[in-house]
């Protein structure tokens, strides 16, 4: 879903790139993009950021769902590693 949304958003840059499935790997779906093209995608994403707290923005947009809860689990693990 995320890669498909990214392709839609940046269809002129990566719309023709194939989303590949890798069953049993750490990331089941991947898209391979030339580094210069990927740089343009990242710049475009950066220009769209208009919030100062990602966690709060996810909850505002999506509400409390399994995706939002999963993100909090990741943040919790990473926070504990900082200590």
Helices and strands, in order, run as HHEEHHH
> How would you sum up the major sheet?
2 strands, antiparallel
- Would you count the extended β strands for me? 2
Portion in strands = 5-15%
**Total count of helical runs of at least 4 residues:** 5
Structural class: mainly alpha
Overall body shape: globular
Q: What portion of residues is helical?
A: 55-70%
Q: Major sheet: order of its strands?
A: 1-2
* First-last Cα distance: 34 Å
Number of domains: 2
Write down the overall mean pLDDT: 94
Cα Rg: 15 Å
Low-confidence stretches: none
What's this model, at a glance?
With 83 residues, this protein is mainly α.
Structure, explained:
With 83 residues, the chain is mostly helical. The protein folds into 2 domains: 1-47, no CATH class; 51-83, no CATH class. Helix content is 63%, strand content 7%. It is built from 5 helices and 2 strands. It has helices spanning 2-9, 11-14, 35-48, 54-62, 66-82; strands spanning 19-21, 29-31. The protein has a two-stranded antiparallel ribbon. A hairpin with a 7-residue loop joins strand 1 and strand 2. The radius of gyration is 15 Å and the shape is globular. The termini are far apart. The model has no long low-confidence stretch (mean pLDDT 94).
């Amino acid at each position: 879903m995320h890669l498909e949304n990214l392709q839609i958003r940046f269809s002129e840059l990566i719309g023709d790139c194939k989303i590949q499935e890798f069953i049993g790997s750490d990331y089941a779906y991947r898209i391979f993009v030339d580094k210069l093209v990927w740089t343009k995608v990242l710049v475009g994403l950066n220009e769209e950021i208009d919030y100062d707290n990602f966690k709060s923005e996810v909850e505002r947009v999506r509400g409390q769902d399994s995706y939002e809860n999963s993100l909090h689990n990741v943040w919790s693990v990473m926070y504990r590693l900082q200590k």
